[in-house]
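pinned: reference chain
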Amino acid sequence: MMNRLNDATSPYLLQHAGNPVDWHPWGEEAFAEARRRDVPLLISVGYSACHWCHVMAHESFEDAETAALMNEHFVNVKVDREERPDVDAVYMTATQAMTQQGGWPMTVFATPDGHPFYCGTYFPRPHFRRLLTEIHRVWTGDRESVLAQGAKVVEALNQNTAFPRGATPEAETLERAVANLRESFDPVNGGFGGAPKFPPSMALEFLLRSGEREMSGRTLESMARGGIYDQLGGGFARYSVDAEWVVPHFEKMLYDNALLLRVYTHWWKAGGGDLARRVALETAGWMLRELRTPEGGFASALDADSEGVEGKFYVWTPEELREVLGDDDGRWAAALFDVTGTFEHGTSVLQLPRDPEDHVRYAGVRGRLLAARELRVRPGRDDKVVASWNGLAIAAIAEAGVVFERPDLVEAATAAAELLEGVHTADGRLLRTSRDGRAGANAGVLEDYANVAEGLISLYGVTGVTKWLRLAGALLDTVLDRFSDGSGGFYDTADDAERLFQRPQDPTDNATPSGQYAAAGALLSYGALTGSAKYRDAAAAALATVSVLADRHARFAGWGLAVARAALDGPVEVAVVGSPADPRTAALHREALLADVPGLVVAPGDGEAGGEPFPALLEGRGPIGGAPAAYVCRGFACRLPVTTVEELRAELAGA
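pinned: its structure tokens
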């Protein structure tokens, strides 16, 4: 048996390299082998931080008897959904169509051409073995029905794939979306719907941009005080298994924390106070401390498990608190963090229902507990760098860096951008992943182009380094040239990407903004900076699906709604011109970035004549009487320039 996973850049694939299963990575070699042997494909899709993926691996893929059945009757393909979101998307669509549910690990039986004919998720080992035997029996004894089923599934999935489009979102559209969100809002615990609860980052961004402080504030505070937030180390877990944000599913993902860092930063700008600032800075600190790679990028995730137990790294018993802190501080900490021993095995996840009155004592206790926790066996880290999620991280960290006056955060965002530029980018095309500074082979998908462009536009707005804006423009040109569906929307894969049985296209948000809405946001910002109608018109066309979702499914269009809010507000454009060495320039620049204005774009420039101004928002706009100046504009129509922070604050408040 060959080990074909040893050279993978995916930590998830490497986790399975030692299995007795004869795994193939996704590729033509596996399809050719299935045709040669005349057996079905068994496609197993998961990711490294997935708890139930580990369970199925231990039960079945590490079991010699089960592996023998798999090897004898199938060509087995292991797919990292984070490396190949396109493969995951088309088979998840099939799985949901066949079973009315989805999740990971995803188990797909397909013809040698890749057409699915039986799908599921996690199977316990006895069930899985019976299924392997039954699929083999049907394949060898009733081949025609299997092939017909596969063809029928593919035909059904390829019919009516176009998502309905509505009119360009208007103010009334967004009002209806707010009303729809209110219908499922939990006024006691925050969030939307019941258990399990996922951080609704994109919907929160829309609500903040819309001035809806009740739903956004309640949710942001409840999450920050609950067990879903790591009260010692910062950062958020993937979701809460209950409706009160108490018990998390403990995996910690880069994309969640990047999105939430940005939302908490925006909440602070909107009046969220000390809690918003603390959570934003702690989350940024966690990202730099726990996810940053030696090459300057950000790793994908931390596992939920350590020592084979989910959450073991994070939970405490009252006795453990007393052992670390002594009796007096231990009892105080147990009451403060609501550690009652009522969780599994007498443990509790830490919560912070209310702020402590004694902040000095709190800081000391927290520091000692964090130091003690560092001695535990740590969860595994998936250290591959995903372009899309690093784009989200760049936007969030760069913005937090300037808002909270933390230049180290801006430096970290710049280092991540340099990694994407140097390793992931060539001739305006993106590769999705890298590991240890070595690029993977998988082409970037729409969300990679869109989120990296968004991050680079934000980084330009913070640093004034024009190469980041130029690179963002090149990526967005590729989006328009390669991903367009011809009717204003975008496919999730490029026109020259690997052909699957279906070309994926989904405008709805999931754990991250949909590629289409992320592209709309980046196109809108780029158009606002450059004055190009091409990009603004493309953004407006991409938002046409928002109107369809706003009335009944606003939770799944949060980013599109947030972008639509920015479009309706202009967006507001601010040109800040003056010598970067002049503290007056820096003060105006920071004041612009502090503004609580939906979708604001900022163009910093030195105001020097010569050469073609880039971006065009800077053209004809220079210092006033030798003093740095700021110009507040909409659609390149600007109000009179201002030269003081107070004047700029008043202009932006009016905007």
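why pinned: The two ends are 66 Å apart (CA to CA). The chain has 25 helices and 20 strands.
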